[in-house]
Automatic annotation (TrEMBL), chains A, B:
This is LacI family DNA-binding transcriptional regulator. It holds the Pfam family Peripla_BP_3. PROSITE patterns: HTH_LACI_2 (PS50932). It comes from the Bacteria. The lineage of its organism: Bacteria, Bacillati, Actinomycetota, Actinomycetes, Mycobacteriales. The keyword Transcription regulation applies. InterPro entries: HTH_LacI, LacI/GalR-like_sensor, Lambda_DNA-bd_dom_sf, Peripla_BP_I. One of its GO terms (molecular function) is DNA binding. Keywords: DNA-binding, Repressor, Transcription, Transcription regulation. Transmembrane segments: none annotated.
Length: 337, 337
DNA sequence: CGCTACGCTGTAAGCGTTTCCACCCTGTAC
DNA sequence: GTACAGGGTGGAAACGCTTACAGCGTAGCG
């Protein structure tokens, strides 16, 4: 473990150092640095110059202490490698920046158990926390709800937890996707799952099960929402002899298609594959992916609106689910005769 | 802008609240919370219980103030959407976590001008800063070098700047890639560039220009290292009638191939395409990408070693470049006759 | 010319923690 | 029974900053 020594007092350039060097009081330096209050122009210039020379940088800790806020927003998500998350984060980032908030992103890929710990830890130094596709158990969520710091749930709906939340509708479009498949004649499909802890995975699976009314028989095989995860599960999936593979997300679909090709199976001539999310690459893959375009921009915007409201202690009515659309491209086709 | 009100003193649960509620001094509470010093077991238990009930959470700001450190590491990178960056960050994350550091990731995608500002801003609340593929001008780097906080440059080599740095060799493998292309008979290629501000782009281009000795004539067309960027520049690239398109990175290659397919051109039968980085998806695309496997694990490990050394004020000898290897897959082939 | 008023600067009081130091209390040894 | 040692606890200073408040000087007006 790295040595945790205090910064030697002699080294650190504080507001005092600057004040002394400039021959003014620390109050003046503070005023100059914040730029707000009235200070005689040439005095301000002198202070600025000295601060510059000393490369003075106000201590965020001290400033945060007295201000009661660091103007930081925390974002926690399962997997930064998934461009989908990143896109909604980026959109939130716009809003946050406009409102003067910095955004700190933490990812707990690999260990879902770390998520709550990470959240609690981060909670100490942020004004608000955004949980994307959180996998924290309900009890943990309740603990989070008790904290003074606002916590926003994105892409997870949890009844009975008093937290603002916003999510994309997963059920309806997945139902539509199944309808599309049914129309093409598919009757036996395999769902390549995401994490069981993820609300989105549960919703998508719920829709697929419901597709029984369309005459579709579905089996689920476990995976993890990554490219490799998709690649690795194909053998098992094929044992169920499906005519279509419905994947948890686009990344998984990519891995699945890769393995299928390796096995000499053509998509969609021999077997159909669908994704979910419509990340950038989806439309550029070969074959171009039939998937669900989950509105990242909208989601990001609404998420930030909710967060801002929470920061201002406004009560918000949880909005309805944001709707998503199926986009049919090349990876799905009629059942081979 | 969200209202910046101070947290009402009445609401915040501080160490004082706990001390009063437990009927002890704040010193005792502090000792109990940090768990280190000796406190009578049942007193400690009582304090813990009270703290729990009040859901007391020590102020990071206050703690950071007195400790002189928040044990935060800052990471700044150009584009989180690029899995390559993410992979090396993840690796560093392991090291950082093991050493008790939290990692805060900031991305300045879209506006390179923001990078220095972001860096300076972040500098205030971290114990160290890692710049990935930084595009900050040399002068900005020098400013960073003057700060007390250690700053590490990853994947950028800048002579004359007194900053620790570590990078993957871009020149040699790009040269090899050109050799591979030359052997296949390619003589006229187009380089689809990354940002001119990026050291890696300059290195790669330097290698390609040098490939003249192999009989390769190269032209460069501007792009931005994204999928869309690759897609959009294909028309222009084709005006130079190349037999191969060498792309700045895998993402760009994906976009390029997508557009090529749209134009009815087959890869590699009609035209060859190469990538760089070997991100996860590269080996799963159709066609599987010929690219350079840039050692993310090694890079991440070495980066953290250097950072730890810097945190401990150890002097380090900058290691040589980390070598990378060409991996030949399906996207390159002989020149069509 | 004197008084008022206003604008600029400095003093000092916190913000919530950690930790040094002093203190008290108990138990032990003489 | 008294003195001493030592562990456990509380008091208080310090970390660097912001800001209310006070104080000073100057300019304008009567």
């Amino acid at each position: 473990m790295a040595d945790q020594t205090r910064v030697p007092a002699s080294r650190r350039v504080t507001i005092n150092t600057v004040a002394k060097a400039a021959g003014v009081s620390i109050a003046t330096v503070s005023r100059v640095m914040s730029g707000s209050s009235s200070v005689t122009p040439d005095l301000a210039a002198r202070v600025h110059k000295v601060a510059e020379e000393l490369s003075y940088r106000p201590s965020t800790a001290a400033r945060g202490l007295v201000l009661g806020s660091l103007r930081n927003m925390g974002v926690i998500l399962p997997d930064l490698a998934n461009a989908y998350f990143f896109d909604v984060v980026k959109q939130m980032h716009h809003g946050a920046t406009a409102d003067g908030y910095r955004m700190l992103v933490a990812d707990y890929s690999g260990d879902a158990a770390d998520e709550l710990a990470t959240a609690l830890d981060l909670l100490g130094q942020v004004d608000g926390l955004v949980l994307l596709s959180s996998r924290i158990p309900t009890s943990g969520l309740k603990e989070l709800a008790r904290q003074a710091t606002p916590v926003l749930l994105v892409n997870r709906v949890e009844l009975g937890v008093d937290l603002p939340m916003v999510a994309v509708d997963n059920f309806t479009p997945m139902m539509e996707l199944c309808g599309h498949l049914a129309k093409l004649g598919h009757r036996r499909i395999v769902y390549v799952k995401g994490s069981d802890l993820a609300w989105q995975n549960r919703e998508r699976w719920r829709a697929i099960e419901m597709a029984k009314v369309l005459g579709i028989e579905a089996t689920a095989v476990p995976s993890d929402g990554t490219i490799e995860g998709g690649y690795d599960v194909v053998e098992e999936a094929l044992t169920h002899e499906p005519t279509a593979l419905v994947c948890f997300n686009d990344l998984t679909a990519l891995g699945v298609i890769s393995k299928l090709r390796e096995r000499g199976l053509r998509v969609p001539e021999d077997i159909s594959v669908t994704g979910f999310d419509d990340i950038d690459m989806a439309r550029h893959l070969a074959p171009r992916l039939t998937t669900v375009v989950s509105p990242k921009i909208d989601l990001g915007d609404q998420a930030w609106s909710l967060m801002r409201a929470a920061l201002n202690n406004e009560t918000t009515t949880s909005p309805p689910l944001i709707s998503a659309d199926v986009v049919i491209r090349e990876s799905t086709g009629p059942v081979p005769s």
